[in-house]
Design goal:
By secondary structure, the chain is an alpha+beta fold. The protein has one domain. Helices cover about 40% and strands about 15% of the residues. It has 3 helices and 3 strands, in the order βββααα. The radius of gyration is 14 Å and the shape is elongated. The protein binds zinc ion (ZN).
């Protein structure tokens, strides 16, 4: 089996000592590894074609997505 076992470490997103998991390459530029709750957050955001926060959007969003996000406030 090649699956990486869960490891204890520090979550790269919330900076807490947790059991952490490597993030998926298809998520783009994201902090890794992440704890389960943050991992879930990113998984759900990607499922819904959204981003977890502005930093995530800036790193991984397209220009159109950013424009839509900014334009949505008007
Ligand atoms: Zn976390």
């Amino acid at each position: 089996m090649t699956a990486t076992p869960p490891a204890e470490g520090r979550c790269a997103h919330c900076d807490q000592p947790r059991i952490v998991f490597p993030t998926k390459p298809e998520w783009g530029q994201v902090p890794s590894p992440m704890c389960t709750s943050d991992w879930q957050l990113f998984a759900e955001a990607r499922d819904n074609n959204t981003f977890v926060d502005w930093n995530d959007a800036f790193l991984n969003g397209t220009d159109d997505q950013l424009a839509a996000g900014l334009g949505g406030a008007t």
